[in-house]
TrEMBL record:
<dbReference type="GO" id="GO:0080043">
    <property type="term" value="F:quercetin 3-O-glucosyltransferase activity"/>
</dbReference>
<keyword id="KW-0328">Glycosyltransferase</keyword>
<comment type="similarity">
    <text>Belongs to the UDP-glycosyltransferase family.</text>
</comment>
<dbReference type="GO" id="GO:0080044">
    <property type="term" value="F:quercetin 7-O-glucosyltransferase activity"/>
</dbReference>
<dbReference type="InterPro" id="IPR002213">
    <property type="entry name" value="UDP_glucos_trans"/>
</dbReference>
<protein>
    <recommendedName>
        <fullName>Glycosyltransferase</fullName>
        <ecNumber>2.4.1.-</ecNumber>
    </recommendedName>
</protein>
<keyword id="KW-0808">Transferase</keyword>
<dbReference type="InterPro" id="IPR035595">
    <property type="entry name" value="UDP_glycos_trans_CS"/>
</dbReference>
<dbReference type="Pfam" id="PF00201">
    <property type="entry name" value="UDPGT"/>
</dbReference>
Amino acid sequence: MEQGRVEKAHHIVVLADQGQGHINPMLQFSKRLASKGIKITVATTLSNAKSMKTTLSYSMITFESIYDDCSQGGVVGPGGFKGFLDRFQASGSTNLTRFILDHEHPVKCLVYDANIPWASKITTQLGIAGAAFFTQSCATAATYYPMYCEVYEKTPLSMPSFPVITGLPKLRFPNLPSLGCSTGRYPPIIIHLLGQFDNFGKADWVLFNSFDKLEEEVVEWMKKVWNVVTIGPTLPSFYLDKRVENDNEYGFNIHKPNSSNCMEWLDSKKTGSVVYVSFGSAANLCAEQITELADALRQSNIMFLWVVKPDEQSKLPIDFSKETSGKGLVVTWCSQLEVLAHHAIGCFISHCGWNSTLEAISFGVPIVAMPQILDQIINAHFLEKVWSVGLIAKANEDEKGVTASEEIYRCIREVLEGERRQEIRKNITSLKELAKEAIDTSGSSDKHIDEFISQLDPAYLRHRSNYN
């Protein structure tokens, strides 16, 4: 445990949304708060709570199921994803309210995933503090906010949009018909995501899994609108400041990793010689894209470690693993933290989800970006155009948006051996040091977390309420 505990532990409830990319950063923030003497209850679905209980053993963190998704089919139950959201709200809001009201240790604050639209209503109803947790980048929020003003406020943004976002490529949207009908020029998924900003406006704090020096200009722009607090990067402490005891993994995995096989294989490889390929837990590549990626890896002389999830194995070219066994390893899942921390990794081919992006930055691993949808495109833009720590493997400009094998190979060679290699290495090493500095003692994120804890004092919250 860290120094600086509060004399009497505050009790904070953390309401996590579905999905590994949402749960992991909120779990890590919970561990960081617990290490500073805060009592934490993580409220989530029954399936998530069961999984976390078996992997996490923090005395200051308990888990509370507020919705039994196991008996109702989860996200693939009746009504699809929309049906799941409706059931989670109906059951979850009632059970969470009852839990907060009846708990013997009074709850000071509800930290909720901003993607849960009904969360802020509970804080208002119960008169407790609320912190909206945005699990994507500050730049993504700054990109979405003008859309929110157009759709929900029915008026253009009242201040200039953030300038660095100018020049972003067109965002691609996933096809999720179960979320309902389109509204105007935006598809249902965007309408759903824009609802987060209603939570922003009602929150005492808006928390971001980022750090000041990574998105400095964006953060300053956003502070004109909300009480923005950067608290990242939310990686396990073992890989950053080592101040949180027994924190060397996230504690939640949708898939079972094959870590021992991966690490033994990497141990036999030279420093910086391996390309690591992974598109996260949610992205689902089409067969054509997997074939192009396989061709790029097969035709080169580059060592590679490629994560191909079980439901994507059938899309691999026949005998690919056998043909490339001398230089490559294909696995169904692995511990990405352990892999990115390994000296053998030279670059990371990634979809650029925000967690993967922050991990690569924190470990100083250059990225070949192959963004698929939404915020991944924004993250990739910043990686290449703003931070200069990687390259975007450009997709074909058609409906499929597949990236050709030649383009993938070109980017790999440029990152590993090309003219920009030294510049990219220098920049990613610099960001790696800034990431560690932010979360270490008296770093910007560490100070922000301490300030957040100190502001749970009732007098401060009354002041904030009057101000808002």
